[in-house]
Design goal:
Elements (H helix, E strand, L loop, with lengths): L19 H10 L5 H19 L3 H11 L4 E8 L2 E8 L2 H17 L6 H13 L4 H15 L9
Antiparallel strand pairs: 1-2
Length: 155
């Protein structure tokens, strides 16, 4: 076990929107340390989103991220030789992290021409409360609801 809690790193806001949330998302999107490429992909995706929806791209992105962010999750716990899926609340930082990672993961699996188009498609789908990332959130909530009977085992 750790002696002390790790220090919270302070993220700088992104250059275009001046938003820390965008920086967090780009850090998750980035592969092999190519942050500039990740920023270009994100900004292109936001431009595509604003063209498709005729609204502010950043606001659509934030609403989409809120739509794919789960509130509860299930955790496995062994009790008396049996493994139970116990629903538990998620702390706010982890909620956002899970939402971002799901949005990125399912946009990578889409069949569009480039990553910016894939990400834009998934953001628009999440904004309309459809798409794979939103479905994942719904499944998580459904699983937590189904295992509500075991919530008294919470740790």
């Amino acid at each position: 076990m750790r002696k002390s809690k790790p220090k919270k790193r302070i993220l700088l806001p992104d250059p275009r929107f001046n938003d820390v949330l965008v920086t967090r998302f780009v850090n998750n999107l980035m592969l092999r340390g190519k942050k500039n490429l990740a920023y270009n992909i994100f900004y292109d995706a936001i431009d595509i989103v604003s063209e498709k929806t005729k609204e502010d791209g950043l606001e659509v992105f934030k609403k989409a991220l809120a739509n794919v962010t789960p509130n509860v999750e299930v955790r496995s716990r062994r009790i008396g030789g049996a493994t139970f899926q116990i629903p538990s609340e998620i702390r706010p930082e982890r909620k956002m992290s899970i939402g971002m990672k799901n949005l990125i993961r399912f946009s990578r699996k889409r069949n569009e021409k480039n990553m910016a188009a894939k990400l834009a498609g998934e953001v628009v789908a999440a904004y309309k409360e459809e798409g794979a990332a939103f479905k994942r959130k719904e499944d998580t909530h459904r699983m937590a609801d189904a295992n509500k009977a075991f919530s008294h085992f919470r740790f």
